[in-house]
Amino acid sequence: MQDFGDAIGLALNLVLSGDADLFEIVLLSLRVSLTATAIACVLGLPLGAVLAVSRFRGRQAALVLVNALMGLPPVVVGLIVYLHLSRAGPLGFLGLLYTPTAMIIAQSILITPIVAALSRQVIEDLHGEYSEQFRSLALSRRQVVQALIWDARYSLVTVALAGFGRAVAEVGAVMIVGGNIDHLTRVMTTAIALETSKGDLPLALALGLVLMVLALGINAAAQSVRLTAARFAYA
């Protein structure tokens, strides 16, 4: 194991020199997490909007379920996806286990409830303000949902950023279904875990630095979106 000071120096050198292996891992992480976030938004935003504006028998149970799924253990999700994609599973014939696609599926399952629950809260609050106006215009439920999603777009971007932040930091589920295979399924979080266990601190620290910069960037973007939304609200 290297001296800590030397490891930091080597880590910075890897980042600043544009090390090919480092950025291959970073780019795969971004591809997997961005794709999973897009899928989660396509599924979660409409679901959250429908739960926000609809009143039906069992709605409270549905809300409890969605909120509970926000805390779904990643290793459980990884296990469920693994069982379905393994050779003995119902989807084993697709050959998706230990591929980036399997990792995307696991991350999508993890963050869709987060996107749905957060967007439901945002849209429900907005619906309370405009419900009488919507009734006076005799809008259909679909038109109401479309109007609310558009009006809440800045807040929903923040929701999407929260989902992406959760996805890019995930390790348990993607380790189980991806296998952490070099040059194929190795992403930042799994590589950090592996390299640390091997005692290769420079690469682990370099990936950690990139991950921290991404986290700061996500938070900065979310703050910028909130400020933009506030300016438009008071314009």
From TrEMBL:
- Can you say where in the cell this protein is located? Cell membrane
Locate the transmembrane regions by residue number. 32-54, 61-85, 97-118, 156-181, 201-222
Q: Which InterPro entries match?
A: ABC_perm_TupB-like, MetI-like, MetI-like_sf
Q: Matching Pfam families, A to Z? A: BPD_transp_1
Q: How does it sit in the membrane?
A: Multi-pass membrane protein
- List the GO terms this entry assigns under cellular component, sorted alphabetically: plasma membrane
Has keyword Transport? Answer: yes
Q: Does the keyword Signal apply?
A: no
The UniProt keywords, alphabetically, are: Membrane, Transmembrane, Transmembrane helix, Transport
Its chief place of residence is membrane
Q: Where is the ABC transmembrane type-1 domain?
A: 26-222
Q: Which GO terms describe its biological process?
A: transmembrane transport
Family indicated by similarity: Belongs to the binding-protein-dependent transport system permease family.
**NCBIfam families recorded:** ABC_perm1
Q: What is this protein called?
A: Tungstate transport system permease protein
